[in-house]
Amino acid sequence: MSQQRDFAASLRWWRQRKGHSQLELAGRADISQRHLSFLELGRAAPSRDMVIRLAAALDVPLRQQNALLVAAGFAPVWRQTDLAAPELAQIRYALDFILAQQEPFPAVVVDRHWNLLLANSGAGQLVEFLVGPLAPGTAVNLADALVAPDVLRPYLTNWTEVAGYFVRSVEADAAADGTTTTAELLKRLLAYDGVEAVLAAPPGPTSGPVLPMLFRKGGVSLQLFTTIATLGTPQDVTLQELRIESFFPIDEETAQIFRNWSKANAAKAAQS
């Protein structure tokens, strides 16, 4: 009974979070509204297949699908594999290929909470130019690096616009996945100086088709925009939560700076 109550509360929470009525969800899951009502009240116990069907109808992420299964008394069905594991070798090859194709421009792979997992040389050169070289093995969270007052913020001339957009995207993530980890990330970002004021101001229009990231350090200006890609039809928690962010120059001057950095880095490597 305790497990039924746990599942019932979780199911009801997800339905309300997604904005569905019982009738709407019942239709999406192809079950009767009466049966769904009994499941939400804990008066009926779901089968394993029913949990998966409802989770799919609610578009619940794989990690939270596992949590629903556990709440209903079943073992998780979606595995979570370390990216370095041998069984993900082909995925890792694909990620490395994407990063290499982006050179000399930056590209990174992050998890759902913006912890850096992989980066190409272009990304390393950008970070080194802005904040200096990082020690090998240094843990990097791109959300903190972007929003905190003492990392990228001093060099990002349109930080207000970029940080506002980014924190709102983390708010959306927190609403979508319902995990304490994402909620804690959002809380941490909101605590940084100036963030609450940024969110209080309505977002304004930009002069171009995308919101750029405008960096300036000394006499060097960099104008970039980003794209974010995910893996198609992932069947693993780790893979579903991966994001591949690629940075592209907006102008030829920025593009040439990255090409020059790449040539200088190659020449340095050849001499060593």
Q: Would you write up a description of this structure?
A:
The protein is α+β, with helices and mostly antiparallel strands and 272 residues long. The chain contains 13 helices and five strands. A five-stranded antiparallel beta sheet has the order 2-1-5-4-3, with helices on both faces. Strand 1 (107-110) and strand 2 (116-119) form a beta hairpin. Helix 1 (2-18) runs antiparallel to helix 5, helix 2 (22-29) packs across helix 3 (33-41) and helix 9 packs antiparallel against helix 10 (180-191). The radius of gyration is 22 Å and the shape is elongated.
Features of this protein?
single chain; 272 residues; alpha+beta; 5-stranded antiparallel sheet; 13 helices; 11% strand; elongated
